[in-house]
Write a structure and sequence with these properties.
about 475 residues, about 10% strand, disordered C terminus, single chain
Length: about 475
Amino acid sequence: MKYPSITELVLRDGQQSLIATRMRLSDMTPILSKLDNIGFSSLEMWGGATYDCCLRFLNEDPWERLKVIKSHVKKTQLQMLLRGKNLVGYKKYDDTVIDLFIKKSSENGIDIFRIFDALNDINNIVYSIECANKYNANSQGTISYTTSPIHNEKYWLKLAKDIEEAGAKSLGIKDMAGLLKPKSAYELIKKLKKNLSIPIHLHTHATTGLSDATNFKAYEAGVDNIDTSISSFSNLYAHTATESLISMIYDDNDNPFDMNELAEVSDYFQNIRNKYSQYEGSMKGVDIKMLINQVPGGMLSILEKQLLDLNKSDKLDDLVKEIPRIRKDVGYIPLVTPTSQIIGAQALLNILDNERYKNLNKEFIDLVKGDYGKIPGDVDKALLKIVDAKSHDQTIESKTVDQARLHFKDFCKEYNLENLYKSDTDLLNYILFTKESKDFYTKSSVVSMNDLIELQEGFGLYMSD
């Protein structure tokens, strides 16, 4: 039986899921050479929430993180998570911005772009696939897996074929909430292997307790690559432990991985994790309610924190129940960044108002109107009427790179940062996270609790991608 290659997630989704993406570059660099020598197919180490957390919370330049990691990792491919038209942000960007971002990411070390869209709208990922191919990277078009009356096997097979025909060099199955069951994974991957000619990668979370069995059945079905996280950053909101999967699929006499080396890596990250204990979620074991409510684990941990800050912890059960109700109302969209932020914020409004849809956040209105892309199912008619009544006609046009460069030039001139103006990566920071970048470059930002609460209540960092 063919053995899958393994992508190690500890530098991105492992730490994003368990310590709110707070791991600093200085805690990564000492172990990078050892990670590089393990034999992983890739290290997922950038994208997702890491980009803005660098600027927002860690006073780090995300591009510097990429460059430093690349300088230490010589053998293993580097991988990032890209939200299609949303890149690493929460709104759509102009094609010129998408092109420049992927170009600079490739130049600075990214080999694999895992490209997904929260709505599974193929139109939202096609251009990113084309750009990744243009710059000779691995364009991994990705399914955002969920379950609903409309998300059946036929739906996934068609989407996967559309992704292949769009030019993707590999297919990712991204199960951000741990909803993919072992038998379903086996049957889906078997059929995908027959229908596609590109490699298939599986990414699933451990939140529901299914990931070990799901990954093993995917291996039996012939999956080409499986994502895992080193044992000291595994399970709970995160993923199957790397050492566990290796032990499942290999006998002792044919195991190409050095288990002692992996143990050293795990020990290193265990010590690192202790430094970030304040960011740990409350989850202690398996959350089987996820199979019912489908709330991603990272999203749940932030919702808990929001309610705690508001002295409304007693409302958590109501909030968790409200999320799938809203999801049904808006056509069974998957819950992954940015839709998880949007639905979570609206659910919080509904619960705090004690009335559904009394107040609507702007992003929720835009989502229902289709501004984020094509919604997979039918939107509730009563909700549509409410949205129409509260809707705004203003459409915010995405700035091109050239338009944004003019604003950036003025900013640089104001603060005597002429050298900064010459850098495309600094320009991209400015385009993607303008306020955070201004604070970062002028060193004027201190994140307060009020800032954090405002961030969470508005368009916050639910760690769901």
